[in-house]
Amino acid sequence: MWIGYAILSAIFASAVAILGKIGLKNIDSTLATTIRSVVMAVFLIGTTLALQKFALIKTVGNQALTFIVFSGIAGALSWLFYFLALKNGPASGVAALDRLSVVFVVVLAAMFLGEGLTLKSIAGLVLLVLGALLIVFK
Protein backbone atom coordinates (compact mmCIF):
# COMPACT_ATOMS: atom_id res chain seq x y z
CA MET A 1 0.00 0.00 0.00
CA TRP A 2 2.81 2.43 0.86
CA ILE A 3 4.29 2.05 -2.63
CA GLY A 4 1.06 3.31 -4.20
CA TYR A 5 1.01 6.28 -1.83
CA ALA A 6 4.65 7.04 -2.65
CA ILE A 7 3.92 6.95 -6.39
CA LEU A 8 0.95 9.29 -5.89
CA SER A 9 3.25 11.57 -3.89
CA ALA A 10 5.72 11.62 -6.80
CA ILE A 11 2.96 12.39 -9.30
CA PHE A 12 1.67 15.30 -7.23
CA ALA A 13 5.24 16.49 -6.59
CA SER A 14 5.75 16.69 -10.36
CA ALA A 15 2.63 18.86 -10.56
CA VAL A 16 4.21 21.18 -7.96
CA ALA A 17 7.18 21.75 -10.27
CA ILE A 18 5.13 22.40 -13.40
CA LEU A 19 2.33 24.46 -11.81
CA GLY A 20 4.83 26.28 -9.59
CA LYS A 21 7.11 27.19 -12.50
CA ILE A 22 4.13 28.63 -14.41
CA GLY A 23 2.85 30.46 -11.33
CA LEU A 24 6.25 31.95 -10.48
CA LYS A 25 6.51 33.80 -13.77
CA ASN A 26 5.66 37.24 -12.37
CA ILE A 27 5.77 36.75 -8.59
CA ASP A 28 8.41 36.67 -5.86
CA SER A 29 9.34 33.10 -4.90
CA THR A 30 9.01 33.73 -1.14
CA LEU A 31 5.52 35.18 -1.57
CA ALA A 32 4.59 32.24 -3.81
CA THR A 33 5.84 29.79 -1.18
CA THR A 34 3.79 31.58 1.47
CA ILE A 35 0.63 31.44 -0.66
CA ARG A 36 1.25 27.75 -1.35
CA SER A 37 1.73 27.09 2.37
CA VAL A 38 -1.52 28.85 3.30
CA VAL A 39 -3.42 26.89 0.64
CA MET A 40 -1.88 23.66 1.91
CA ALA A 41 -2.73 24.48 5.53
CA VAL A 42 -6.36 25.29 4.68
CA PHE A 43 -6.65 22.16 2.53
CA LEU A 44 -5.13 19.92 5.22
CA ILE A 45 -7.25 21.41 8.01
CA GLY A 46 -10.33 20.75 5.86
CA THR A 47 -9.16 17.19 5.20
CA THR A 48 -8.51 16.60 8.90
CA LEU A 49 -11.97 17.92 9.75
CA ALA A 50 -13.64 15.86 7.02
CA LEU A 51 -11.90 12.70 8.22
CA GLN A 52 -12.63 13.57 11.86
CA LYS A 53 -8.98 13.28 12.88
CA PHE A 54 -8.71 16.30 15.20
CA ALA A 55 -9.75 14.11 18.17
CA LEU A 56 -6.37 12.35 17.78
CA ILE A 57 -4.51 15.54 18.81
CA LYS A 58 -4.38 14.30 22.40
CA THR A 59 -2.31 11.29 21.26
CA VAL A 60 0.57 13.54 20.18
CA GLY A 61 3.27 13.57 22.85
CA ASN A 62 5.83 16.30 23.44
CA GLN A 63 8.67 14.46 21.75
CA ALA A 64 6.57 13.66 18.67
CA LEU A 65 5.35 17.26 18.52
CA THR A 66 8.92 18.57 18.75
CA PHE A 67 10.08 16.41 15.85
CA ILE A 68 6.99 17.29 13.79
CA VAL A 69 7.61 21.01 14.39
CA PHE A 70 11.25 20.67 13.30
CA SER A 71 10.09 18.65 10.29
CA GLY A 72 7.73 21.51 9.43
CA ILE A 73 10.57 24.02 9.64
CA ALA A 74 12.74 21.80 7.42
CA GLY A 75 9.85 21.47 4.98
CA ALA A 76 9.33 25.23 4.89
CA LEU A 77 13.02 25.80 4.20
CA SER A 78 12.90 23.13 1.49
CA TRP A 79 9.92 24.85 -0.16
CA LEU A 80 11.56 28.29 0.05
CA PHE A 81 14.70 27.05 -1.66
CA TYR A 82 12.74 24.89 -4.11
CA PHE A 83 10.63 27.82 -5.32
CA LEU A 84 13.69 30.10 -5.42
CA ALA A 85 15.51 27.54 -7.57
CA LEU A 86 12.39 27.00 -9.70
CA LYS A 87 12.03 30.74 -10.27
CA ASN A 88 15.58 30.91 -11.63
CA GLY A 89 16.16 27.50 -13.21
CA PRO A 90 14.59 24.90 -15.46
CA ALA A 91 11.85 22.81 -13.82
CA SER A 92 13.46 19.54 -14.92
CA GLY A 93 16.86 20.45 -13.46
CA VAL A 94 15.43 21.77 -10.20
CA ALA A 95 13.25 18.68 -9.75
CA ALA A 96 16.18 16.37 -10.53
CA LEU A 97 18.40 18.00 -7.94
CA ASP A 98 15.56 18.17 -5.43
CA ARG A 99 15.09 14.41 -5.74
CA LEU A 100 18.66 13.99 -4.55
CA SER A 101 16.98 14.26 -1.17
CA VAL A 102 16.64 10.50 -1.55
CA VAL A 103 20.43 10.22 -1.25
CA PHE A 104 20.44 12.28 1.93
CA VAL A 105 17.49 10.34 3.37
CA VAL A 106 19.15 6.97 2.79
CA VAL A 107 22.43 8.10 4.37
CA LEU A 108 20.74 9.83 7.32
CA ALA A 109 18.36 6.87 7.82
CA ALA A 110 21.38 4.58 8.03
CA MET A 111 23.09 6.90 10.52
CA PHE A 112 20.15 7.79 12.78
CA LEU A 113 17.45 5.17 12.22
CA GLY A 114 19.60 2.08 11.84
CA GLU A 115 18.32 1.33 8.35
CA GLY A 116 20.62 -0.87 6.32
CA LEU A 117 23.08 0.52 3.81
CA THR A 118 24.01 -2.23 1.38
CA LEU A 119 26.09 -2.43 -1.76
CA LYS A 120 22.81 -2.53 -3.71
CA SER A 121 21.47 0.65 -2.04
CA ILE A 122 24.81 2.42 -2.55
CA ALA A 123 24.71 1.49 -6.24
CA GLY A 124 21.17 2.90 -6.41
CA LEU A 125 22.34 6.13 -4.81
CA VAL A 126 25.21 6.45 -7.28
CA LEU A 127 22.76 5.94 -10.16
CA LEU A 128 20.41 8.58 -8.70
CA VAL A 129 23.25 11.10 -8.51
CA LEU A 130 24.42 10.27 -12.03
CA GLY A 131 20.86 10.53 -13.35
CA ALA A 132 20.35 13.92 -11.72
CA LEU A 133 23.64 15.17 -13.13
CA LEU A 134 22.73 13.92 -16.62
CA ILE A 135 19.44 15.84 -16.45
CA VAL A 136 21.02 19.02 -15.08
CA PHE A 137 24.03 19.05 -17.41
CA LYS A 138 22.28 17.91 -20.61
Automatic annotation (TrEMBL):
Pfam families: EamA
PANTHER family according to UniProt: ACYL-MALONYL CONDENSING ENZYME-RELATED (PTHR22911), SOLUTE CARRIER FAMILY 35 MEMBER G2-RELATED (PTHR22911:SF137)
TM regions (residue ranges): 6-24, 31-52, 64-84, 96-113
Entries under SUPFAM superfamilies matching the protein: Multidrug resistance efflux transporter EmrE (SSF103481)
Protein name: EamA family transporter
Domain EamA: 2-136
InterPro entries listed in its UniProt record: EamA_dom, EmrE-like
GO cellular component, one term: membrane
Record's keyword terms, sorted: Membrane, Transmembrane, Transmembrane helix
